[in-house]
Each structure stands twice: as C-alpha cells, then as structure tokens.
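Priority: low. Protein: Phosphoribosylaminoimidazole-succinocarboxamide synthase. Input follows.
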Amino acid sequence: MQKQEELYRGKAKTVYTTDNPDYLILQFRDDTSAFDGERIEQLARKGMVNNKFNFFIMEKLAAAGIPTQMESLLSDTESVVKKLDMIPVECVVRNIAAGSLVRRLGVEEGITLNPPTFEFFLKNDALHDPMVNESHAVAFGWATEAQLAEMKRLTFAVNEVLQPLFAEGGMLLVDYKLEFGVFAGQVVLGDEFSPDGCRLWDSETRTKLDKDRFRQGLGGVVEAYEEVGKRLGVQFD
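Result:
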C-alpha cells in the first residue's frame, strides 16, 4: 500500500491517503501537546511507543468483538487504518474521579465512581471540547440517535475489556476518551487508544503513568508510557 497525500495533520498524528480509497495511513509523531495545543514539545520515541501501544490495544478490542479501524502495523510509527466518516462527538468513561470532572464538580480526586460515568463532548479545539448531550448531537446533525446509542454501548464494552487488562498489569484505568466513525454503514472505533487519551495510575502507589505527567510537568512521559506497555506485554523493540 502506497502513501500518497497528507490528508490531515493533528496535534500528534498525521493522516495520509493511499492508493486504496478505503484505507489511510496513520502516522504517530513525537509531538506532545497539552491545553488544546497551547503547549507542544517533541519527545523522542513517543510516536513509536504510541503507535505500537495503539495497535496492541486495538487488536485486543477486535478480538473481543469490538469493531475498530485498525488494519495493520506498517512501520514503527505508522499503521494502516480504514477510512472512516468521523463523528465529531467524543465519548468519555470515568471509573475514578480525576481531571476536568474534579475541577467541574469540586469532588475529590481518586474517588471510585460506581457505576462509571459517561459523557459526550463535541470535538472542537477552538471551543475546548465542550460537553454536549444526545439532544445537541441529534439537533445539530453531528450523529443520529442510533449512532449515539451504539457509541455508548461500544465505549462501555471497551471498559469491560480494558479494566481487567490493565488490572493484570497492576494499573487502574481511571478514565479514557474514544472517537468513532462510520465504515460501510457500521459504527467503528477510530483514532487511537494510548496514554495520550486516557488516565492510568499504578494500582498500589497511584503514580500517574499517562499524559498528566506532561500536563503537570512531572517528567518521564515516554518512560511512563513504555512502562505501561511493558506491563501489558507490548513489544517496543
């Protein structure tokens, strides 16, 4: 499969067209951003780590019956993915209170949420990804009721797969965000699942092993990502 033109350049990934109109190449760069792109740095090996981590997770989800856009690992920093008609609404599940939920509601960080909470957010950096509900999404044509219901179902199905997976590696899956698109009429998990888009804590020490290390200036960002992967059995070399 041949890489062709650059289709989209995000904060940490670049998407390219290929000679097959149904497939794209997703390139993970070493760029690391926070606060809607206000802070950007280059962290060596990050693109490779996130690409291989994402491929590993997507394979686990696919094996559990969750449809994903992942097709194959192409290189250290690139993957072949299905071309989705992306839905501009993100799904967020929170198992433990952290991040924006703590700031928004004034609750204590670290509280276990039982049952886990679920939220929709509009994918719009200029507006700082505001929270929306099903009514907004349908009224503005971002998604249909059926699509939203399927997105929610799949987001919780991901939780059922990944919570025990991370627990086996001595980690807590605190929260995560997912993006979906449509391929051949089916709602499919797209974008990525990596420590860039979720929160992961060590089960015993509650040490942060995710992008909060970058946001909060804790250092050791890529090293933490690699530690997460190694606990799960991801091969980086």
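The radius of gyration is 17 Å. The chain has two domains: 3-82, 85-220.
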